[in-house]
Amino acid sequence: MSTRLNKYIASAGLCSRRKADELISNGNVKVNGAVVNEMGFVVEDGDRVTVNGRLIEGEKPKVYVVLNKPLGYITSMDDDKNRATVADLVSDIPERLFPVGRLDYNTTGLLIMTNDGELTYSLTHPKHEVDKTYIATVSGVLSGKRLAQLRKGVDIGGFVTSPARVRVLRQNPRSAVVEITIHEGKNRQVRKMFAAGGNQVQSLERVAIGELKLGRLKEGHYRKLTRQEIEYLKGL
Ligand code: URA
Question: How many helices (H) and strands (E) does the chain have?
Fold first, then answer.
C-alpha cells in the first residue's frame, strides 16, 4: 500500500499531520536511511521510516474476529497465575488483538477481539447500552414473580439493574434454561441477577451482541467478521 509520508507518520500515532510536515521539512525524517524533505513523498510497503532515528511503524491493519470462548479461559491478554487466556486462542493472528469487554472464566460464547481501540471503546462504553444476550441454565424453578423481578430490575448489591428481556426456553423439574438480554456490564451481572432470586447459574453462554450472533462457531474457534458485521458494530 502506498501512503503519503506525512499521513504515514501521523497515522502511526506519533503526531498530527501538520507536525509531521514540520518534521519532514526540518530534515528529521529518513526513508530507507536517506533524509526526505518532500511533503508529498510516497511511502511503499516495506519502506523503513525513521523520525529522529526512531523507527516508525505505519498504521496497523485493523482485524476483527469473533471468538467462541470456552470454559476455563480468562478474558485478558496475560495472566499472572499462568492460566490460559483468550489471547492463546488467536495467537496465529500476527496482530495483537484485545478482547472487547469481559466474560467470566466460567462463561462461554461470543467474544469480539480486535486491535481497533475506537470500536472497543464505543462498544464497552456504558452510555452506548449495547444489548448482550445470554443463555443461562439456572437451578430451581423460575416462578412468574421471579421473572417479573428480572424484567423490572434487580438489586445486585448496591446496584439496581435496568429492565432486562427474559424468556424461559425450558423448565425442567430442577433447573431452567433461560434467554436473558441486558445492556449493562457489571461484574458477574447475570449470575448475580439470578442469584438475587435464589437461582444459581450453572452454565452461562453469550450468544449475541446486538444483532451479531455466535451461530454455529465451535468452542475455541474464531472467525473474521464480515465487512457488513464490522459496519454494523461501528454503527451501534
Ligand atoms: N454476566 C455474568 O455473570 N458473567 C459473564 O461472563 C457475563 C455476564
Answer: 6, 15
Residues 204 and 137 in one domain: yes
Sequence-separated (6 or more) residues with CB below 8 Å from residue 73? 83, 84, 85, 86, 88, 89, 105
What is d(CA 160, CA 5) in angstroms, rounded to the nearest whole number?
Answer: 52
- CA terminus-to-terminus distance, the chain: 30
The residue segments making up the domain with residue 79 are 64-126+215-235
Reported as a single tens digit per residue, the pLDDT across 164-218 is: 999 999 999 999 999 999 999 999 999 999 999 999 999 999 999 999 999 999 9
Ligand 1: residue whose CA is nearest its atom 2: 188
Looking at the structure, do residues 122 and 220 belong to the same domain, yes or no? yes
Distance CA 9, CA 104 (A): 39
Q: Is the pTM of this model over 0.70?
A: yes
Among left, alpha and beta (phi > 0; psi -120 to 50; other), residue 99 is beta
**Ligand 1: residues within 6 Å at CB?**
103-104, 107, 188-191, 204
- For the chain, the domain total comes to 3
Report how far ligand 1's centroid is from the alpha carbon of 227 (Å): 28
Positions marked active-site: 104
Helices (H), 100-215: 117-124, 144-152, 189-196
**117 and 222 both lie in a single domain:** yes
Residues 68, 82: one domain?
yes
Give, for 112, the enclosing helix (H) or strand (E). strand 107-114
State whether 140 and 200 are in the same domain: yes
